[in-house]
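Supplementary notes for students who missed Thursday's class. We covered one full example, reproduced here. Read the sequence, then the structure, then the short commentary at the end.
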Amino acid sequence: MLNALNVLIIDDDEDDYFITSQYLLDIKALNIQCSWCYNITEALQKIKSNHFDIYFLDFRLGARTGLDLLKEAIAAGAYKPIILLTGKGTPEIDNQAVEAGAYDYLIKGEINSEKLERCLRYAVERYKSFKLINDNEKKFRLIFENALSFIFTCNESLLFGDCNPASEYLLGYTPSELKGTSLLRYIDPKLTTGFIKQIQAHKNIRNLNLRFINKHGELKTGNLSLTYFENENFEVLWQGIIYDETMRMQAEQTKLQSQKIDATYRLVQTLAHEIRNPLTNIGLSIDGITESVNKESEQYVSIIKRSYIRINNIISELLQSSKTVELQPELVDLNVLLTEVLQNARDRIKLKKVAVNTSYPDFPVVKLLDKEKFKIAILNLVVNAIEAMDKEKGILNITLSKSIEQTTISIADNGMGINEEELKKLFEPYYTTKKSGMGLGLISTLNIIKSHHAIIEVDSKPGIGSVFKVVFTEEA
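Structure (token representation):
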């Protein structure tokens, strides 16, 4: 840039332009090309265009001052170096020029080629530094704005300051909605005790797994890092980033549920083969001895026959619950499907005198489903929720929500809840907390849900209730 400088002199006095341009042209170390502009409107456009490398701007321009033009140009996006020229210098004008954004301030009667060369070199070097900082700021601003993770700053009280747009994906709130609110408001309260102690001690936090509550009251899993620092005014600030772990957790859950179904199927196939061979022999033997038994032995044969049929039915049901579901997909509005499910469960709801609350979007939520099979799976979850609640005390909440990332059906009850050990055993064949039942309902439900490329999430607290969520990812 120093080898060839394109300079514009803005001055309403042609004689002053000529003198200044001659001093510039006398600088042999620099290849300078001078241009002149005396019209204020035209000058403003040329400064805003950032076409020239350096601008010399006269302080007096008729009815307006060079300061006015300088402020207006910078506000409009001018960023190339501007040097203010005046016939008489005062400290007040000098300060105003620097505050307005001028790179330098020169008195016309004191300038010469040597002063102008030094001024130009200083302006060019300062502009290089500014451009480097500005380019880096733009680069990091782009990273900040386009990052998939939620990046933010907050003060000592953990009130949000700057937030990037990823806040809307994680929490459902825009950056402007979050500003001034507390980070603690969005963290699951059960997990904040140790977290707050670290904050109070000004200790940096690295990769802390927390659950965050979004705008819709849903829990999202996130990985939080917070870095403590102080600004130039010694104010305490925190810089944070939250990686959304929800998708990764869902992927792990999908894998785990698939492994459970696959393991169940392998076990069932083996059991069916090993049990049915001797069971067939038992059946044939019963048929062979039925006619020859006496009356005293008939009741024993009858018991054996009923047990044989019962075992055979159990194996058939187990095979049916774990085998791959064949679908007949069609476009289904989940609003309509959930309404039909509740109609199917109305007798149980009336019998238990359960209060039902529903929350559906006011627009169709359409998915490609085998309607009858999927309805059976959702009905199983609804019936389980009803049976888990006490008569006349039950509250059943059915919610359908649709976001950019996923569609979720939530079935919540205020029943007895499930403890942590029992939660681990859910979806395992023959495991049930009911007094009656074979424990195959949930494994069948899981199989149907998985066949529709969705997963089941369960959150339960003993004595409070359970929430079963069927989650479709965006691709499903």
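Commentary. The mean pLDDT is 82. Residues 321 and 444 are 5 Å apart (CA to CA). If anything here is unclear, bring it to office hours.
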